[in-house]
User: What shape does this take?
Amino acid sequence: MSVYEFNGKTPRISASAFVHPDAVIIGDVTIGESCFIGPGAIIRGDFGPITLGAGVSFQDNAVIHVDIGSKAVIEDDVIVGHGALLHDVHILPRTIIGMGAVLMFNVICEEDSFVAAGSVVMQGLRVPAGTIVGGNPAKIIKKASERNIRATAEGVSLYRELSRTYRETMKKIA
Assistant: This one.
C-alpha cells in the first residue's frame, strides 16, 4: 500500500483492516477495524480529516477527499462501491453508495440509505434514513425494503470476512 504522511499528519490504520497495495492513503486519515480498501482506492486527507469506521468496504477506484477546513466521515458498516467519488460527506451506518456514484460537498446519508449506481447527489442533500435515491440529480426513489437492509448486513459481513482473508492469504506472485 502507498501510505503517506502529509503536513505532519500520518494515517492511522487498524491492524485488522486490509488496504490493498495499490491503494493510496494520504495524511489525516483513520481507517477502522475490519475495513476493506480495494485496489486503486484513494483516501486523500490533505486538507482535512477523513474517518472510516469499522467494517467499511471502500472498493476499487473509489475516491474520497475534503475541502480546506472540512472533514469526511464514513461511519461503521458502509459499502462504497467501485469508482464512487465522495467529497466532504457524512455517511451514517449501514449505507450503500453504488458504483460510480458522485456525492458532492456536505452530503449526508442517514442510516440504512442507498445511493443508486451512477447517481449524482448534489451539494448539501440529506438522504433520509431508509430511503433509496438515484438519478442525476439524485432524488428519492422509494423506501428501502427489509430485504434491502438485510442485503446490506450480508454484504458488510462478507467484506469484513474478505478483509481477513486478504490479510491472511494474498501473496504477490509476479
